[in-house]
């Protein structure tokens, strides 16, 4: 280790402007990142850059959500309920950003979207593999998706099959209940599970960690529902009842998903409190 003229070591020089070994741009791969927005329209439609950017940002956040939710589930199985709640709090905060981000897309008028919309076919948001991974991980496992979407790569199919096979967040929560001695085998009988959760709700002094974990799961579920609701309104605002570019029915399909709950028992619990 050599000391330089200003008293800094060679190790120090890797940081900041002096070393220039790792810069902001090289660490974040900014040139490569900014090269990923390739417009399909010709001549370039002004709003297509916005459309691509917003959806790419969604995929980046989906990647982060999968990272956090997978870890939260694993912490439930390991017994670290504080960290599971901490990670779910982060998830909920990120989801708040995703809901608000829809307002950015809503600044695009239907006329400006129609300039390049036909160039998107047969691509569709229905094909977002990471979004399906999030649903599968949260407990809404739909094996039929793999048959409905024929454009999956081998890697994407393997990822979805792995998510279908692995434990969900709900499985992690059921493990928490068993570990707390609240039930031997819960999840088969919803009535017994409701009775167990009523005990948790009535004795938060003893089961406060379990109750708070359930509340964070419900926050995640509620945010997913709010995102679906805002998303379908945005779609109807842009294209009305037209079919989706990927061949789906468009807003009617999206509306059919509005009643989806990841953790229906936690919602049903409210009727029994």
Overview of the structural elements:
The structure is a single chain. With 273 residues, this protein is mostly helical. The protein has two domains: 1-36, no CATH class; 48-269, Methane Monooxygenase Hydroxylase, Chain G, domain 1 (Up-down Bundle), CATH 1.20.58.480. Helices cover 63% and strands 0% of the residues. The protein is built from 14 helices and no strands. The chain has helices at residues 16-19, 24-28, 30-33, 48-78, 81-105, 110-114, 129-138, 144-148, 154-165, 169-179, 190-202, 204-239, 251-256, 264-269. α4 packs antiparallel against α5 (81-105) and α5 (81-105) runs parallel beside α12 (204-239). The protein is globular. It starts with 15 loop residues before the first helix and ends with a helix.
Secondary structure: elements and pairs:
Layout (H helix, E strand, L loop, with lengths): L15 H4 L4 H5 L1 H4 L14 H31 L2 H25 L4 H5 L14 H10 L5 H5 L5 H12 L3 H11 L10 H13 L1 H36 L11 H6 L7 H6 L4
Helix pairs in contact: 4-5, 4-7, 4-10, 5-12, 7-9, 10-12, 11-12
């Amino acid at each position: 280790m050599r000391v330089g003229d200003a008293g800094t070591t060679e190790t120090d020089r890797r940081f900041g402007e002096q070393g220039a070994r790792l810069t902001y741009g090289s660490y974040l791969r900014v040139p490569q990142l900014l090269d990923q927005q390739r417009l399909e329209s010709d001549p370039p439609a002004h709003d297509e850059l916005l459309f691509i950017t917003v959806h790419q940002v969604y995929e980046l956040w989906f990647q982060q959500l999968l990272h956090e939710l997978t870890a939260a589930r694993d912490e439930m199985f390991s017994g670290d309920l504080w960290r599971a709640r901490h990670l779910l709090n982060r998830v909920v905060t990120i989801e708040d950003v995703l809901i608000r981000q829809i307002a950015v897309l809503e600044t695009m008028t239907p006329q400006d979207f129609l300039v390049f919309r036909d160039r998107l076919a047969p691509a569709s948001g229905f094909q977002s593999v990471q979004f399906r991974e999030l649903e599968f991980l949260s407990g809404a496992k739909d094996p039929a998706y793999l048959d409905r979407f024929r454009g999956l790569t081998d890697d994407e199919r393997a990822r979805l099959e792995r998510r279908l096979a692995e434990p969900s967040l709900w499985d992690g929560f059921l493990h928490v209940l068993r570990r707390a001695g609240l039930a031997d085998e819960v999840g088969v009988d919803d009535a017994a599970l409701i009775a167990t959760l009523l005990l948790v709700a009535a004795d938060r002094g003893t089961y406060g960690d379990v109750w708070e974990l359930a509340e964070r799961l419900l926050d995640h579920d509620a945010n997913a529902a709010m995102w679906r609701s805002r998303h379908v309104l945005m779609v109807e605002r842009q294209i009305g009842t037209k079919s989706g570019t990927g061949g789906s029915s468009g807003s009617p399909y999206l509306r059919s998903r509005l009643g989806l709950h990841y953790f229906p028992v936690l919602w049903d619990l409210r009727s029994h409190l």
